[in-house]
Amino acid sequence: MNVLVTSAGSTNGVNIIKALDKKVRITAVDCDELAAGLYMSDAWFVVPKSTDDKYIEVLTEIVLKDKIDVIFPAHSNEIKKLINSNLSNLLVISPIKAYEITENKIMCKAFLNNIDIPTPKQYYDKFPMIVKPIVGTGSKNTVKVNDKKELDFYLKKDMFYEEFIEGVEYTVIGISDFDKKMVCALPTIRLKTRGGMAVRSMSEDNPELVSIVKKVAENMKLAGVWNMQCIRKNNKYYFIDINNRFPAGSMPLATASGMNIPLILINILSGNKVTPNLVYDKTMLRYYESIIL
User: Fold this and answer.
1) What pLDDT was estimated at residue 194?
2) pLDDT score for 266
3) Eight-class DSSP state of 121
4) I need a surface site. Which of 17, 32, 71, 272 has the fewest CB within 10 A?
């Protein structure tokens, strides 16, 4: 099988390429010729940025040239453009309707509340609170606001405000098949984060949380890979985010825990029955690596 990995210089791109471990032929693309993932692949191309009008046209040429069977988009900025393109049939990702719900914090919160999933309260006059963009990815521009002076600084019409909940933070990594049924889910505890990405995390055997995310995933009709973030406080889980993409920080931990996401997705695409044997209580410590050209 021939796999195309986009944004090969991103953390996600490198993680996907490493997880594939030369078991398939990998073509990597990035807008930067010094993106590390390019030099870990069988073939690579420098392409325009995903915001460029020529992006899909150039990608289509590569797909035809390298006879690509599946595209793994590594960066969230590319996903909507790819879903709405002629390449959508090569994606392993949720339908556009589910994607649009998860990308909009207000819509996502309403969906979760409608199926009785707890979320932080939304308000403007109690501190501390969390302020984040209504439409955004990861933790970019997400801040904790402690008083009225800070709130006035961040008060914008395109921002979303909700209570700050202090507790144990989780990212649950999940995979669903194309009948929108959950195949597996791995709860991970975020021990330490940097720039919104987990740099220390631990997998946990947590059937209760798996049952909750299954309810969310199947009601939302998610497909392919996804991840959900929540906080546990007083034995209750408050959901704060859902992402239709590979988990940027926790993928190496998932692979080590028996959940090799790219290979599982390839097996689902190939029509094979997938029953991952997950192992728990593994701890991931992230560190920098180098490639010498």
Assistant:
1) 84
2) 95
3) P
4) 272
Question: Which pLDDT belongs to residue 159?
Answer: 83
| Cβ proximity of 129 and 145 under 8 Å | yes
Count Cβ atoms within 10 A of the Cβ of residue 26 and give its class: 0-12 exposed, 13-18 middle, 19 or more buried: buried
Structure tokens given for 146? 């402690």
Structure tokens, 103: 């990308």
CA-to-CA distance for 144 and 196, rounded, in angstroms?
Answer: 13
Q: Which pLDDT belongs to residue 139?
A: 62
Cα gap 19→31, rounded to integer Å? 22
Looking up tokens 């993409």, which residue turns up?
245
CA distances from 123 to 110, 113, 147, 162 (A): 14, 15, 13, 6
Reduced to 3 states, what is the DSSP secondary structure of residue 188? Answer: strand
The rounded distance, in Å, linking the Cα atoms of 221 and 154 is: 34
d(CA 261, CA 39): 21
Q: Residue 93 has what DSSP assignment?
A: S
Separation CA 197–CA 241 (nearest Å):
13
Task: Return the number of other C-beta atoms located less than 10 Å from residue 281's C-beta.
Answer: 9
Backbone φ and ψ for 21, nearest 5 degrees, come out as 50, 45
The full set of domains in the chain, from first to last, is 2-91 (3.40.50.20), 98-107+166-285 (3.30.470.20), 121-163 (no CATH)
Q: Which residues pair with 30 in a beta bridge?
A: 46
What type of residue sits at position 221? Answer: K
